[in-house]
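Data's thin. Show one?
=====
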Amino acid sequence: QAQLVESGGGLVQPGGSLRLSCAVSGFTLDAYAWGWFRQAPGKEREGVSCISPSKDTVYVDSVKGRFTISRDNAENTVYLQMNSLNPDDTGVYYCAVGWGCYSDLSPSDFRGWGQGTQVTVSS
């Protein structure tokens, strides 16, 4: 059964780091694109980053230079390394699967949403 399970969220001070994990089952990791998305309270879900089957990556402007997406085919896990976190990064983070990475990082291009993991950046 296909399943995506996010983990690694938590409470972190501004300037801190977290690494999110998305454990994938039921999919061959390098056959699909994998996206990370986030949703802050009262806001729409937005795309954060994507990694394509060929490992090309896309980032939303607000996280460029701070976040890194990667995948480990042997572990069947997709990661999001988040550095220099600030309060605007607060939200529930989700991973999802798609066919390709597009510059607009639209959630409508992805499916198979997990339950999400909460990231709170606060002093």
Q: What stands out?
A: DSSP finds no helices and eleven strands in the chain. The two ends are 40 Å apart (CA to CA).
